[in-house]
Specification:
Two copies of one chain form a homodimer. By secondary structure, chain A is an alpha+beta fold. Chain A is about 15% helix and about 30% strand. In chain A, the strands form three sheets. Chain A has a four-stranded mixed beta sheet with strand order 2-1-6-5. In chain A, strand 7 and strand 8 form a beta hairpin. The mean pLDDT of chain A is about 95. Chains A and B meet through strand 1, strand 2, strand 5, strand 7 and strand 8 of A and strand 1, strand 2, strand 5, strand 7 and strand 8 of B. Strand 7 of chain A pairs antiparallel with strand 5 of chain B.
């Protein structure tokens, strides 16, 4: 276990209805974070924090994650400028997920593909029972090729 | 691997910008699902689906999950009546998370503690650097004790 500043898990009543923050990290030491626009509630992305990333986020007021693909800390916006200023963090009944309400700096996009939110496609059922994707609307904020070539 | 009706993962360009649905299930065979109110966007809960739960959801238009704690399928609302009618499902750039926009049947609550949304507490930093929880507002829709004793 990572040593953390957070409380260890207590009884169910306290977890669900108490005022002690005792987050549940999964077997990989991570907690799921739903990131929403603090002004209109749009779901921008889903990321994962370990205890240290959560602590950095609380200390700085800017969102830090743990990148599962790169296995490293990831300050959102460090290279892109799309820094997330954290307005509020909520947790759920069993304290195994977080909602971060944020304001996005830089060009205001969150997704590395150039859209404001990562969730820019919807599922559609075809007549044969298979599922495809289609764009859910919303123009790109920028084209990453213009920046990264 | 579970056999699924969904496509196997292709190249990054297709995953990120194509129309082929090729969801990424984690090492436990699960994908994270952010559930929002289709009308006002409130984040109601976070759940997890395996391929079969996702397929049941797509087939029936009502949300099915995989309960990690009980290790079993879980049709949301099967006992509580708080069934989720799925209005739209979105996926993100790397197709490893879903957003379900739903309308909740029954008494309209989602959380088993009795609140409309599971995220009814916010994190607050104390002066000593520790973190506590406080209610984020919103009355209980019902008291589970009234139903389950």
């Amino acid at each position: 276990m990572t040593e953390t500043k957070f409380a260890t898990r207590g009884d169910k009543g306290e977890v669900e209805q108490g005022s002690t923050f005792q987050p549940k990290f999964d077997a990989d030491g991570l907690i799921a974070c739903v990131v929403t626009d603090a002004d209109d509630g749009t779901v921008l992305m889903v990321g994962y924090m370990n205890a240290e990333a959560l602590d950095r986020t609380l200390e700085t007021g800017e969102a830090w994650y743990w990148s599962r693909s790169r296995q490293s800390f990831w300050k959102k916006g460090e290279t892109s400028g799309q820094v997330q200023q954290v307005v509020e963090i909520l947790t759920d009944c069993d304290q195994d997920a977080l909602v971060l309400r944020v304001r996005v700096a830089g060009n205001g996009a969150t997704c590395h593909v150039g859209y404001r939110a990562c969730f820019y496609r919807r599922l559609v059922r075809r007549d044969d029972g298979t599922t495809a994707l289609e764009h859910a609307g919303g123009a790109r904020v920028y084209d990453p090729k213009d920046i990264y070539g």
